[in-house]
């Protein structure tokens, strides 16, 4: 477990843990799910000593559960938020190293949609964050806050979070940004699939990849809906907090509302884009089968026209093939050429007629 103190004058790590809370600022306690499981009794006793309240047993089970969806719960002592982040899949990591994920494959993009929950227990002056073992959010924010606190001007201290809720929202916003990056990669991959679907002279054979991509979109949509519900419940709980008498506290509360609405807007943006991708994929599949049906209709129309042209010729051939002795032109030396000319005229005439009607073209006259 790692413990940090965040105050107006700076950010620093604490080792060993203090017996009491500092007079100013708040503490950030970050750990992995395995560390929480191993050191849970010591953590509970420390929280009881610092705040006079410990985690509820049901909430500790939720924080240790790696399959829990995003949700929010509040108590009289603290608020608890579980937010599913994008897992650090190899495909997503490679895509982020390149130029906007230009070299990623569809399989790597789909692997990036794997998610893991990050738990937040928000006390008045303590923030407990529980991360997966491979999570980079803890190290990222530790380095980022340390960098802000070391800046020579006042802007560094102004960038430091002012409360546990403020730090929680910043971490959640950072995790949502990963979904925004994934959104661009999904768009590029679906554009390639749609181009292959609508190519006029290609045989589309990537149906397993398309079905896997649609399943991944459904999974991402469910994840975003859970995230939206959790953040909306947090905003509702924030509105029910008692009104602060201090003007500075009221301003901090309003900034929390603004940041919460910004996080919710980011989630809504990802959710809307995922739904547009689903609709676009469904529309591309329908257009593919519609184009395939049109090509089939064109082929059948051409075959029907050719059959209609040769049907009178077969009739003429059948008439002159009758076994009658007095058949006209049957004993004439020019009969064959007359019949052949008649068949040619009939064939050319019907062909010209169907061509004028555009039955032999790519479009049918309406």
Gist of the model:
The protein has 366 residues and is an alpha+beta fold. Helices cover 61% and strands 12% of the residues.
What is the secondary structure topology, with strand pairs?
Elements: E1 2-7, E2 10-13, E3 26-32, H1 33-38, H2 40-51, H3 57-64, E4 71-74, E5 79-86, H4 90-97, H5 106-111, E6 115-122, E7 126-131, H6 137-149, H7 154-159, H8 164-198, H9 207-239, H10 247-320, H11 335-356
Parallel strand pairs: 3-7
Antiparallel strand pairs: 1-2, 1-3, 4-5, 5-6, 6-7
Helix pairs in contact: 8-10, 9-10, 10-11
What does this structure look like?
The structure is a single chain. It is built from eleven helices and seven strands. With 366 residues, the protein is an alpha+beta fold. Helices cover 61% and strands 12% of the residues. It starts with a strand and ends in a 10-residue tail after the last helix.
Specify the biggest β-sheet.
7 strands, mixed
Query: How does the helix and strand content classify structurally?
Result: alpha+beta
What strand line-up does the widest sheet have?
2-1-3-7-6-5-4
The coarse silhouette is rod-shaped
Strand content range:
5-15%
Count all strands and give the number: 7
Total helical elements: 11
Listing every helix as H and every strand as E from the N terminus to the C terminus, the arrangement reads EEEHHHEEHHEEHHHHHH
Distance between the termini: 75 Å
Radius of gyration: 36 Å
Compute the average pLDDT.
83
Low-pLDDT stretches:
89-102
Q: How much helical structure, as a percent, in the residues?
A: 55-70%
């Amino acid at each position: 477990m790692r413990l940090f103190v965040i105050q107006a004058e700076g950010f620093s790590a604490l080792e060993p843990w203090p017996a009491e809370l500092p007079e100013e600022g708040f503490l950030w306690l970050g750990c992995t799910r395995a560390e929480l499981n191993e050191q849970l009794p010591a953590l509970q006793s420390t929280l009881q000593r610092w705040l006079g309240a410990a985690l509820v047993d049901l909430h500790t089970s939720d924080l240790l559960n790696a399959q829990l969806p995003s949700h929010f719960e509040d108590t009289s002592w603290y608020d608890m938020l579980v937010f599913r982040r994008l897992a650090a899949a190899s495909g997503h990591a490679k895509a982020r190293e390149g130029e906007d994920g230009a070299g990623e494959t569809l399989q790597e993009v789909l692997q990036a949609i794997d998610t893991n929950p990050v738990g937040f227990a928000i006390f008045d002056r303590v923030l407990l964050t529980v991360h997966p073992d491979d999570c980079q959010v803890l190290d990222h924010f530790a380095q980022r806050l340390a960098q802000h606190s070391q800046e020579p001007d006042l802007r560094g201290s102004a960038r430091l979070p002012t409360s546990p809720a403020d730090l929680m929202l910043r971490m959640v916003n950072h995790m949502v940004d990963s979904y925004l990056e994934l959104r661009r990669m999904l768009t590029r991959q679906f554009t390639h699939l749609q181009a292959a679907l609508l190519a006029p002279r290609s045989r589309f054979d990537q149906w397993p990849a398309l079905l896997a991509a649609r399943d991944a979109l459904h999974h991402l949509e469910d994840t975003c809906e859970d995230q939206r519900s959790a953040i909306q419940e947090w905003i509702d709980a924030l509105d029910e907090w008692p009104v602060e008498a201090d003007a500075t506290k009221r301003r901090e509360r309003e900034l929390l509302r603004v940041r919460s609405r910004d996080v919710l807007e980011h989630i809504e943006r990802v959710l809307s884009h995922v739904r547009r991708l689903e609709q676009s994929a469904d529309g591309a599949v329908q257009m593919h089968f519609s184009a395939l049906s049109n090509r089939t209709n064109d082929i059948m129309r051409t075959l029907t026209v050719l059959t209609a042209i040769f049907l009178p010729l077969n009739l003429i051939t059948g008439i002159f093939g009758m076994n009658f002795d007095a058949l006209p032109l049957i004993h004439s030396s020019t009969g064959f050429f007359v019949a052949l000319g008649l068949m040619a005229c009939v064939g050319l005439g019907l062909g010209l007629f169907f061509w004028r009607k555009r039955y032999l073209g790519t479009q049918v006259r309406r």
